[in-house]
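re: ur question from earlier - yeah i can do the single chain one, its not a big deal. heres the input i used so u can compare w yours
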Amino acid sequence: MKYPLYLGAVAAALGLALAGCQPAARPPTVGSSASVPGPSSSELAAIIQTAVEDRNGTVLDTPPVARLATRQMTAAYRSKRERDLAVVARSKAGFKSMGFWYTSFSTTVTVESVEVSGSEASVRFKELTEEYQASTANGPSSVPSGYSLPQTATFRASGDGWQLDSIAPTVHGGILPMSVVEG
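and the output i got, formated as tokens:
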């Protein structure tokens, strides 16, 4: 009856030998997909909606205070937004010198897809905006002008959650709304 005892000893030795072949367990590295909780589509959509409304508000005669929190955007997004403000201000001044200005707008963002890869996310969405104008000749108009613009927003995970890194049109060329500065 030494045979079953012999098999048990061989199995134990084999188990110990194979255990030595396993890689050492390490904690996940910062930025790996294991350390970043995935964003919800509604969380990203809310950030996009606020960012697009902030951007569109820059064309108004009296722009509202931006509502997107600093912790919700990367330094790269903040930098581009600051550069874009100067371009929009020049366009707005030219528009006003011709006797026109925007008085209000209404924007709806519809998320079409969300892709998450580790600490980065990409959101394809469509913006539908109606803008109301006024002119020195006719006063305020009750008929809006409008546009629909497909865009992509990118996000990066950070210690503060998911931060907006960029928003760009997915179709290039053509005439863009005054608030959208490409490049």
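The chain has a mean pLDDT of 84. not sure if urs matches, ping me
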